[in-house]
């Protein structure tokens, strides 16, 4: 059980990275003597470790960081079949990986997670003893308690209390999260956004996910749906969307949409890279499709910048092709559609990710709860 002063320290380190004892004392408003005692206890408990030594003016100071083996987390992604399941530590590193069959039956999923758990935990000598939580990422809406899936089109779920089903089977506290929100939490805790208070993640795959951190906290909105740019209308009266509306961003700029538009033009291509190849060799249909998709995505991101003024937009993609026409048009459309004084002011980072990104994000949801407690 973590005490309140220990949790304050975990929060401070998770926000700023490794800290010296003097910096920790300042962050927590403690005397240096009290801080030294607290740090000693936490090192003995295996929660903190000495990370590195900083040489500046005066005496060198040793910085303390979270011990990666202090707690372990399991993350499961219900976005793929088979569903990836990973074991992660408190550094956000993946220690072990397994797969379970994807099912639309929540009880079957809970059973599969429970059955796969012992093998996954056997990858590290103390993982079973220090397992602090399980996270599950899925496509859809999750309530603010992170226990219930309010609605998922992909899984055909409505009000499914999956977290409690998994906890009942495994005895381990479990949390659910929307896929893009889980990725954003992973970036905040362990990734490139660790020190950024306001940022958005746009995850480009078969569908388009999006999530925002505002003032250092994940912004959920009133119904958990904040950040759903996929269903912003981008072409009024356009093609029907699976959500029931027309002309959503998802119908033009998702990988699924790009491939469908390409097939309708007679391409047999199955990848963005192949459509890019066609465009670079002058195929006008391929150029038109990539222009339409890139302009739509860039316009949506420009609107996002206009509304939230984030310090970073991170675009993640699994297709491995963002340096061709599509990526160029996205960037141009962003620059063209933001207020001139914002142009070039918001860093746009593009990152290719592998299929474990959502399972990693899911484990981060459990780590987020461990570090920050129930009311972050
Ligand atoms: Zn839609």
Automatic annotation (TrEMBL):
One Pfam family it belongs to: MarR_2
Membrane-crossing segments per the record: none
HTH marR-type domain span: 2-49
InterPro entries linked: ATPase_NBD, HTH_MarR-typ, ROK, WH-like_DNA-bd_sf, WH_DNA-bd_sf
CDD domains registered for this protein in UniProt: ASKHA_ATPase_ROK_CYANR (cd24073)
Database matches in Gene3D superfamilies: 3.30.420.40, Winged helix-like DNA-binding domain superfamily/Winged helix DNA-binding domain
GO MF annotation terms: DNA-binding transcription factor activity
Family the entry assigns: Belongs to the ROK (NagC/XylR) family.
The name this protein goes by in its record: ROK family protein
């Amino acid at each position: 059980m973590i005490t309140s002063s220990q949790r304050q320290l975990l929060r401070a380190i998770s926000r700023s990275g490794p800290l010296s004892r003097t910096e920790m004392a300042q962050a927590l408003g403690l005397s240096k003597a009290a801080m030294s005692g607290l740090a000693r206890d936490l090192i003995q408990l295996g929660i903190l470790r000495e990370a590195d030594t900083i040489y500046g003016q005066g005496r060198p100071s040793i910085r303390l960081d979270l011990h990666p083996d202090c707690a372990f987390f399991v993350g499961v992604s219900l976005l793929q079949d088979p569903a990836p399941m990973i074991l992660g530590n408190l550094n956000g590193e993946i220690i072990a990986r397994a797969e379970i069959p994807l099912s639309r039956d929540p009880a079957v999923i809970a059973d599969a997670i429970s059955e796969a758990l012992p093998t996954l935990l056997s990858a590290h000598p103390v993982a079973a003893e220090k397992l602090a939580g399980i996270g599950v990422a899925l496509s859809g809406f999750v309530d603010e308690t992170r226990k219930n899936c309010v609605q998922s089109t992909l899984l055909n779920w409505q009000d499914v209390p999956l977290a409690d089903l998994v906890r009942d089977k495994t005895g381990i506290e479990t949390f659910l999260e929307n896929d893009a929100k889980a990725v954003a939490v992973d970036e905040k805790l362990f990734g490139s956004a660790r020190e950024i208070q306001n940022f958005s993640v746009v995850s480009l795959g078969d569908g388009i996910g999006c999530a925002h951190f505002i003032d250092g906290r994940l912004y959920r909105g009133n119904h958990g749906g904040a950040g759903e740019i996929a269903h912003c209308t981008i072409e009024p009266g356009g093609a029907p969307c699976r959500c029931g509306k027309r002309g959503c961003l998802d119908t033009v700029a998702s990988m699924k949409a790009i491939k469908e538009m390409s097939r309708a033009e007679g391409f047999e291509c199955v990848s963005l890279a192949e459509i890019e190849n066609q465009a670079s060799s002058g195929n006008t249909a391929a150029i038109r499709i990539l222009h339409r998709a890139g302009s739509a995505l860039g316009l949506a991101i420009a609107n996002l910048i206009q509304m939230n003024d984030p310090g970073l937009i991170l675009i993640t993609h699994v297709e491995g092709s963002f340096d061709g026409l599509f990526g160029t048009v996205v960037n141009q459309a962003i620059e063209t559609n933001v207020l001139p004084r914002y142009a070039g002011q918001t860093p746009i980072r593009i990152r290719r990710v592998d299929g474990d990104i959502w399972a990693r994000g899911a484990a981060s949801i459990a780590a987020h709860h461990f570090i920050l407690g129930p009311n972050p």
